[in-house]
Amino acid sequence: MPVTKTAKRALRSSKRKQAINKAVISRLEIAVRKAKKSKLAKDINSAISQADRAAKKKTVHKNKAGRIKSSLSKLLSKQKPSKTKAVKKTVKQAKPKPSSKGKK
Fold first, then answer.
1. Measured between alpha carbons, how far is residue 78 from residues 10, 42, 71, 74, 103 in Å?
2. Helix or strand or coil: residue 66?
3. Chain centre to alpha carbon of residue 80
């Protein structure tokens, strides 16, 4: 048990932070399990978002969040290769501006 006043205060703070961190990690683990089981795009994106949030709060290390996101994005790419049509872009020609050097 803490003896000093500041140690008691630190213990209270530590317990609050522990509860918050536990909730964040639990949400992340549940989202990852759900995404891996269902393999739906919305579940995968939700789990990726949870990983980003956990890394932002420094509950999990950013590299761990990166690994989680990488494994989930592999599931997303295995799901179906999306067929995207190549859209031809039209480029507008800019009108030449009159030179101001010649006029005085």
1. 47, 15, 11, 6, 64
2. helix
3. 22
Total residues found in the chain within this entry = 104
Q: CB 78: neighbour CB atoms within 10 A?
A: 9
Which residues in the chain come in under a pLDDT of 50? Answer: none
Query: What totals of helices (H) and strands (E) does the chain contain, helices first?
Result: 3, 0
Residue 47 near residue 39 (C-beta atoms within 8 A): no
CB 44, CB 36: distance < 8 Å:
no
Please report the domains of the chain, with CATH numbers, ordered by start residue: 5-79 (1.20.58.110)
pTM comes to 0.69
